[in-house]
Amino acid sequence: MAFTNFIRQAVITGLEELYHQSFAENDFQINETKQEFEGDYTIVLFSLVKKLKLSPETLAKSLGEYLVNRNPGIIAGYNVIKAFLNLTLADDYLQAFLNDNYQNEKFGEKKPTGRKIMVEYSSPNTNKPLHLGHLRNIFLGWSTAEILKATGNNVVKTCVVNDRGIHICKSMIAWQKFANGATPESTHTKGDHFVGDYYVKFNDEYKNEVKELTDKGIDEKQAEKDAPIMKEAQQMLLDWEQGKPDVVQLWKTMNGWVYKGFDKTYKRIGADFDQIFYESNTYLSGREFVRKGLEDGSFYKKEDGSVWIDLTEAGMDEKLLLRGDGTSVYITQDIGLAKQKFEDYKLDESIYVIGDEQIYHMKVLKEICKKLGMPFYDKIFHLSYGMVELTTGKMKSREGTVVDADDLVDEMIDTAKHHTETLGKVNDFTGDELRQLYETLGLGAMKFYLLRVDPKKRMVFNPRESIDFHGFTGPFVQYTYARIQSILRKFGDASSMVNRQWSIVNGQSPVVNPETEREKLLPLERQLIISLEKFDNAVVQAAEELNPSVIANYVFQLAQTYNSFYTEHSVANAENEVKKNLRIGLSVMTANVIKSSLHLLGIQVPERM
RNA sequence: GGCCCCGUAGCUCAGUGGAUAGAGCAACAGCCUUCUAAGCUGUGGGUCGAACGUUCGAGUCGUUCCGGGGUCACCA
Question: What DSSP element (H or E) covers A52?
Answer without folding.
Answer: helix A46-52
